[in-house]
Amino acid sequence: MRNVSFVRSEMLAEQTPPLTSIGFIGWARENLFNGWFNSILTVISLYIVYSFLSFLIPWVLTPTWKATSLNECREINTALTGHHSGACWGVITERWPQFIFGFYDRDILWRPILVFVLFLATIAPILFERVPRKLFLLGPVFPFLAVWLLWGGSIWSPVFSFLGLVLGYLVWRSLKERVNAVILLLSSIGVPIIWWMFLTEPASGLLAEIIPYEIQVLPSRDFGGLLLSLTIGLTAIFCSLPIGIFLALGRQSDLLIVKVLCVWFIEFIRGVPLITLLFVASTLLNIFMPPGTNFDIIMRVVIMVTLFSSAYMAEVVRGGLAGLDSGQYEAANALGFSYWKAQRLIIMPQALKISIPGIVSNFIGVLKDTTLVSVIGLFDPIGLTTVVLADMRWNGVYWELNVFVALCFFVFCFSMSRYSMYLERKLRKEN
Amino acid sequence: MAQHQDFKKPTFELSMLLYDTRYRSTSFQVIALILFFSLIWWLVNNTMSNLAITGKDIDFSFLVHESNYDINQRLLEYDSRSSHGRAAVLGVLNTLVLSAIGCVTATILGVFVGIARLSKNWIVARIMTVHIEIFRNVPLLLWILLIMSMVAHSFPVPKHFRGADPIATMKLFDSVALTNRGFYIPEPLFSNGFGDMGFFSNSFYISIDLIVILAIFIGSIWASGKIKARAKRIQEETGIRPTTWYLRLGVIFIPTILLLVYLGFYLGYPELKGFNFKGGIHLRNSLIALWIALSLYTSAFIAEIVRSGILAVSKGQTEAAGALGIKPNVIMALVILPQALKVIVPPLISNYLNLTKNSSLAIAVGYMDLTGTLMGITLNQTGRELETLLLGMSIYLTISLLISAVINWYNRRNDMVER
Fold first, then answer.
1. Which residues contact B296 (CB under 8 A, 6 or more apart)?
2. Which chain B residues touch A388 with a CB distance below 8 Å?
3. Interface contact A25, partner B, CB < 8 A
4. Less Cβ around it within 10 Å: N or C end of chain A?
5. Model confidence at A257: pLDDT above 50
6. Which structural domain range is residue B141 located in?
């Protein structure tokens, strides 16, 4: 018996979609030419891109990397194209070490490089999970080591400063079980401060006489280029996050006076341009200090940039705190958590997670704002361009220098923003 | 049942200041206050002793002394014999002018870029992404210097405009001259104007024509708003909205145009005289460079705000409005925009604030704003760091607090009820 069916009993073989809706053509129809308006837009945009690139690419691709002066560049470019409008990269070949290290002594460049490598090793376990956790131990050592390697001097002052930290930790560990939280906090902060204020100097001076070991001292005015920007920027970034968190907590606090003080501080700092704060750092900060104090210009700038960025950080963290569901606070209260415990274990991990984009864009802002120090006469990359332009041989190469500096900053800022996107995605996946 | 114990009224002990939650917050606050005041006292004390050592005092009388320097962009009468205080006022005005025009162009550009980034057209969206990333990840100071060198080096010198067959020509029907010394644009003039009016015992003059025109224009806009309100009332009562757009257009523009005709409005064109252009308004290189750089830089941030604002309105809103049978452009105007604006406006205003503060970078290209006058030349000439910086910072702070007051007012007016 034959089975006669009126409907198809088996599936037809799959057919490929029409050529116009797959591959590049399909994609282009979908994304570039759907409708007359989009087609016009596409054509106009392509023309803009073309005219931009047809100007940019010949300008960039000039064989002037070996030229030793602007005139030589112009000769090379004229010989090549008949006009001298190409880029002059010889200046970068000659000056790039200066743009990275400033006037740092050329014989001891290994020191800033080592600091940078150590820095990467220190932040690696924070940034990526697969890095060995033991690298966290580098964290407390790094600041002292970095300062010593960058500025030089006797080995004993960083060692004894670091001992202060160890001392604080020891006090905390030995008293942890015996006294209450407030006394524990006060003593484990107070003991190192006393150590730093009164004992570090004489002790390290004494040991330096017995076992003298010191490396070449570098004055702050030799710092320049990206080294200076990164020193100021990264220090400010890492100091401003904790200060910002405390300011944000203070602003949200029920304690009226604490709240008012925090609000004043934040609003004042956010209300004035950074450049005025830098003017304060360069001309006025010494007036506020006890007579005779004269501390380093980089230090003063770092303090001001840190204060500036911590106020912005506080606002970002406050946004995160406000974005948190109020049930979280209530649940923490219901479980009987103390204020600090609730902040540490429940509120902050979530609030900081929400505010990652803001925090990172604040970091980027700080790094970009370090260029303002050129206005008060420090030689960051932008300040250095004036130095290079003062050289007779390179007088007139604005574009090449500015493009190079822009690229340097772009690399750092762009990678930071990409990292924050990666982190956001990762944290969203974990939830 | 457990027996009730008689509670002793607890006696006050010193340790309760620390352990009892009733007292703890107060005692912490008192400690904070004491620390704060001792910090202030320490700073003031240091300042006083430092000033005593250098033999200085705190004295603002330099503000009425002769400034002995010139300001190239003047909105008010000023010369080098004017006072430092007047120089500071001119600086503030220059800051405000730069910020105002910067905010306008940055908004226009930012809204355009933000919407274009959401375009379904792949290449348009990509170009806008590149624009945003380039401007957000490179320091503003660098953009200002780059655009300054571009403006200063890529336009012809004024003498190229001369002769029967000039190398360079004026643009836009011979009304605008783009030179390496800046742009010259036509200026509005009145053949039969009211003249100027002196304020504060003639310490500065403001054109009465300008005041009258502004007053009439604002009045017209107010009247147009009234017409709109009336149309809305009629719509609520009868369900039919009267057509009022021609009426409103007329109310807004006709009085102002009539006034301009009455005042004898004409444009004064820039003309080449000797080695330079005369007449017209001279926009200096520094202003142009700052304007372009600040607008482009801020537009990248505004674009991201606009984009996230539009994305924040959930798609269901559009679909629900569509299901109710509302037309697409009306959906945009009545459903999407009001909700998106609530998200967009506060960060937008805080970007205006950033732009105003960033305009202090003007000092890098020699534009005489508040930082350049009061905190620049005046500071260097008088050596009064403390006074000039205090004054300058408080002026910036005032501007900022005014702008944040606007944000707070907007937020309060549009506060959404939570839960």
1. B106, B109, B135, B143
2. none
3. no
4. N
5. yes
6. 63-153+286-413
CA angle B94, B95, B96 (to 5 degrees): 90
- Closest CA relative to residue A417, chosen from A368, A379, A375, A382: A368
Residues B230-273: tens digit of each pLDDT: 988 998 888 888 888 888 888 888 888 888 888 878 777 777 77
- What sign results for the dihedral spanned by CA atoms B352, B355, B360, B366? negative
* HSE-CB for B210 with a 13 A CA cutoff: 8
DSSP secondary structure code for residue A5 in this structure? -
Taking alpha carbons only, the member of B241, B253, B343, B333 closest to residue B302 is B343
Determine the Cα–Cα distance for residues A150 and A145; give it in Å rounded to an integer: 8
Amino acid, res. A384:
L
Nearest to A409 among B19, B137, B396 (CB): B137
Residue B267 lies in a domain: no
| Mean pLDDT lowest among A375-389, B2-16, B120-134, B343-357 | B2-16
A427 at B interface, C-beta within 8 A: no
Distance (Å) of CA B279 to CA A188, B152, B270, B283: 72, 21, 4, 12
Tell me if A252 sits within 8 A of A320, measured CB to CB: no
Contact B139 A271 (CB under 8 A): no
The total number of structural domains in chain B stands at: 1
Residue B73 in domain = yes
pLDDT at A248 over 70: yes
Q: Indicate whether B192 pLDDT > 50.
A: yes
Number of residues assigned to chain B: 419
For A261, the closest of B36, B127, B133 (CB atoms) is B36
Strand, helix or coil for residue B187: strand
Residues of chain A with Cβ-Cβ distance to B121 below 8 Å are 31-32, 38, 41-42, 45
- The pLDDT of residue B100: 93
> What is the DSSP secondary-structure string of A369-429?
HGGGGGGGT--SHHHHHHHHHTSGGGTT-HHHHHHHHHHHHHHHHHHHHHHHHHHHHHHHH
The domain that holds B81 is classified in CATH as 1.10.3720.10
* Structure-token pair, residue B144: 């200002």
Could you report the per-residue pLDDT of A67-109, keeping only the tens digit for each?
Answer: 888 888 888 888 887 777 788 888 888 888 888 988 888 888 8
- pTM: predicted TM-score of the whole model, two decimal places: 0.87
All residues at 6 or more sequence positions from B379 whose CB lies less than 8 Å from its CB, including other chains? A279, A283, B385, B388, B389
Of A45, A257, A382, the CB nearest to B127: A45
- Report yes or no on B398 lying in a domain: yes
Domain-embedded: residue B308:
yes
Lowest mean pLDDT among A212-226, B88-102, B129-143: A212-226
Query: Does the CA dihedral A216-A220-A223-A228 come out positive or negative?
Result: positive
Answer whether A115's CB lies under 8 Å from A149's CB: yes
The tokens describing B50, both together, are 């430092």
Assembly ipTM: 0.87
Query: Hey, which residues 171-230 in chain A have their CB within 8 Å of chain B?
Result: 180, 182
Q: How far is A209 from chain B (nearest CA, A)?
A: 34
Report how far apart the first and last C-alpha atoms of chain B are (Å, whole number).
Answer: 44
Q: What pLDDT does residue B7 have?
A: 63
Question: Which among A41, A273, A382 is the nearest to B142, CB-wise?
Answer: A382
Do A382 and A405 meet the contact criterion of CB atoms below 8 Å apart? yes
Per-residue DSSP letters for A201-217? HHHHHHHHHHS--EE--
Q: Which of A211, A64, A235 is nearest to A146 (CA)?
A: A235
Written as one letter, the residue type at B10 is P
Contact A150, A218 (CB under 8 A): yes
Contact state of A255 with B33 under an 8 Å Cβ cutoff: no
Q: How far is CA B32 from CA A255, B57, B364, B406, in A?
A: 10, 31, 41, 31
Sequence length of chain A is 431
- Say if residue B24 is exposed, middle or buried (CB neighbours under 10 Å; 0-12, 13-18, 19+): middle
C-alpha A416/C-alpha A362 separation (Å) is 11
